[in-house]
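Case study 2.
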Amino acid sequence: MIGIIGAMDEEVDALIEAMESTGGAVTKAGMVFHAGVLRGVEAVVVRSGIGKVNAAVCAQILIDDYHVDALVQSGIAGSLNKDIHIGDVVLSRDTVHHDVQAGAFGYPPGQIPRMDTFAFEADAKLLAAAQRSAAKALPDVPVHVGRVLSGDIFIKDQEHKDRIAQTLHGDAVEMEGAAVGQAAYLNNTPYLVIRVISDNADQDANIDYALFERMAAGRSVALTLALVEELAGRRCE
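Prediction:
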């Protein structure tokens, strides 16, 4: 079973509608978990709400209550890389918290004190499957594998953008992925973050986000569905 998380309705509604059969909806921690069959794979689709705490709580419920075999966070993000443009896909190589600062205790930016890792590495098999899926579902869309930075801040300032991009070598920025990555790491559960770029995380971010949110969310849904189909096909081989 795969757990699919989106922060907003725009990122999950079409996935829920695409379910071929459902086992009913369960509400927990203010989140509605839709369990059923999606493109031949048992899945749970849920809107976590925005932010790292929501995402982490959601991921833990999926692991504890639904015993998912993998987690996929799907949605939209801002670009931190000049070579990654609005509409492009970013697949997580790893995820890092950009708003963790414990330098007073000798830790570098992004490092959670007393954890044995700086970045949460995505699952290699899920990543490869997503790359194959993107080539089929979005053949004309550039796909990048990179580092996704997460924090409880909507980045819309060039100076802030440049600082976190240069310090943490990030390629995309959003508000949930590293929390899902951390939950996955702590529970030894494979995970992947799929993001489509809606803005450039700069002074025009508010305008670009409003213009391109629907397009970016639509592409993230298309790629997520293609990934589920890819996983179903691999299981049948």
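The beta strands are 2-6, 21-28, 31-38, 41-47, 70-79, 89-97, 120-121, 143-150, 172-174, 191-199.
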